[in-house]
Amino acid sequence: MFEHYSFTAAGRFMRYVQIDTQSDPQSATQPSTEKQKDLSRILVEELQAMGIADAHMDEWGYVYATLPSTVEKEVPVICFCSHVDTAPDASGTGVKPILHRNYTGGDIVLPDDPSVVIRSSDFPYLEQLKGHDLITASGTTLLGADDKAGVAGIMDAAHFLMTHPEVKHGKIRILFTPDEEVGRGTARVDMQKLGAQFGYTLDGGEAGSLEDETFSADAVTIVINGVITHPGYAKHKLVNALKIGGELLARLPKSELSPETTEGRQGFIHPVRFEGIAERCVLEFIIRDFDTALLRPKEEFLRALTELVVESHPGASYEFTITEQYRNMKEVLDQHPQVVAHAREAIRRAGLSLRMESIRGGTDGSRLSFMGMPCPNLFTGMQGIHSMKEFVSVQDMNKAVETIVHLCCIWAE
Ligand SMILES: [Zn+2]
After folding, report:
1. Which residues of 62-98 are buried (b: 16+ CB within 10 A; e: fewer)?
2. pLDDT confidence bin for 398, thresholds 50/70/90
3. Pairing of strands 56-57, 63-67
4. How far is the CA of 179 from the centre of ligand 1 (A)?
5. Distance in Å, CA 180 to ligand 1 centroid
6. Catalytic residue among 46, 146, 156, 180
7. How far is the CA of 149 from the centre of ligand 1 (A)?
8. Is 179 assigned a catalytic role?
C-alpha cells in the first residue's frame, strides 16, 4: 500500500514543534494557555486544505475533523487522538528542531548547550535506531515530540487517506486536545459530538509498543486539626498540627510502597503536598495501583497510620477524604477485545514486533475509555520526553502513520 508513497510526517513535525504550545498547571482558563490555539488553528487549516470540510476548533481549543467513509457497509467510527500541548517541565519557546540524518550510534551533543548530551547509555533504545534519521531539539528547550509526533502522525495518515480514496475504511474522527500535560485534556471533550465508538491515542514511545493498561488512581486528603493557644502560655495545652503532619510523613514506609522504591506492576502511596499552620495542616497524597481493588488496602493503611499518630496527641483530630481520580483502562478494554486485537494486527502489518506495555500513570485514553470510548495508546517513537534530551526517529514516526492506516483498513474488513 505504501510502496510509492513518501511520508511527510517529519516535515509536519518540524513545523509543529516550532510553535510554542506549553500548557500551564497554575492557569484556571480553558485552554490553560491561549497559545495552544496557535497550533490548533494551523491544524484546522491544513485539514481543510486536504479537503476535510468539517475540520474546526471549538472555543475550548479542541480540534474535530472527519474523514468520510470509503465503504458502503456500516463499520464502527474510529477516533485518533493526540494532544497539542507540551509539558511545563522544560521551555517550549523557540524550539529549533535539528534533523540528524543516518544516525551511526554514540552520544548526541546538542549545539546550543553542549552540556546537554543524549547518551546512548541513558537511552538503550538508540542502539536500535542506527541508520535512522533522528530529530532533537538544540539544547535549550524540550523538543515537543510529546505529543507533536502523535499530531504529525495523525495529520500524515489523514493526508494519505484523503489522497488515496481507493483505500477502504469507515468513518474516521480526528481529535486534537489541549492541556493533556496538566491533566485536563479531556475536560471539555464533547463525546456526543465526537461520536466515535472506539479510539486510539497516539502518545506512546518505542515503535511497536501498545499500551492497554494504566494505573488506577485515587487522591487522599488528610486535614489535621491541632489545638492553638498563645505560645507563651501553651504548656500542656498547645497541640501543633504541623508536627503531627511531619510525624505522619516520617512514619511512611521507607523501603516499599513509594514511587522511589517501586517499579513494574507495584503500586504506591505518595505524598505530593503538605501545607498549613500550627493550628491546622493539610496533607495530599496520590494512591496508585494497576489493580483497582488494591487501592483500598493502601488507603486503609494510610488511614490507620493517621489514626495511630493523631491519637497519640490528645486534643488533635483529623479528617480523611478519598477522591477517585481515574481507573485502569484495561477494565474497559477487556470488554471490547477487538480494539486491542486490531491494534496488534496493525502493528504486525507495519512490519514491527509488538511490545505490550503498561503505563505507570494515566493517559487521556484512560479517561476517554471511561467516558464511553475504549481507547488504548499507540506508539509515536518519542523518547526522553519532558526534557531537553527529547528525540524521535523519522522512521518510527512513519511507522506510526502506517499503523494508523492499517488500523483504519482492519476496522473496515
Ligand atoms: Zn503526551
Report:
1. bbbbbbebbeeeebebbbbbbbbbbbbebebeebbbb
2. very high
3. antiparallel
4. 10
5. 7
6. 180
7. 9
8. no
Distance 324 CA to ligand 1 centre (A): 22
Which of 218-255 are b and which e, b meaning 16 or more Cβ less than 10 Å from the residue's Cβ? bebebbbbbbbeeeeeeeeebbbbbebbebbeeebeee
Residue 20's nearest CA partner among 82, 85, 67, 72 is 85
Q: Ligand 1 centre and the CA of 87: distance in Å? A: 8
d(CA 1, CA 410): 13
| CB neighbour class for 270 (10 Å; exposed up to 12, middle 13-18, buried from 19) | middle
C-alpha cell, 170: 469507515
> Ligand 1 centre from 181 Cα, in Å?
7
Residues 6+ apart with CB under 8 A from 254: 261
- The mean pLDDT of the chain is 96
Are residues 116 and 388 in contact, defined by beta-carbon separation less than 8 angstroms?
yes
The catalytic position among 85, 147, 206, 396 is: 85
Residues 356-391 pLDDT 10s: 999 998 888 989 999 999 999 999 999 999 999 999
Which pTM was predicted? 0.89
The residue whose grid cell reads 498563645 is: 230
Task: List % helix, strand, coil for the chain (3-state, nearest 5).
Answer: 30, 25, 45
**At 315, is the pLDDT very low, low, confident or very high (cuts 50, 70, 90)?**
very high
How deeply is 121 buried, as exposed, middle or buried, from its count of CB atoms within 10 A (0-12, 13-18, 19+)? exposed
Report how far ligand 1's centroid is from the alpha carbon of 290 (Å): 20
pLDDT number for residue 101: 96
Q: Which residue, among 256, 291, 290, has the nearest Cα to 270 in the 3D structure?
A: 256
CA dist 397 and 300 (Å) reads 45
Grid cell of 365 as nine digits:
485514553
Q: What is the pLDDT of residues 26-67, one digit of tens each?
A: 999 999 999 999 999 999 999 999 999 999 999 999 999 999
| Residue 85 annotated to the active site | yes
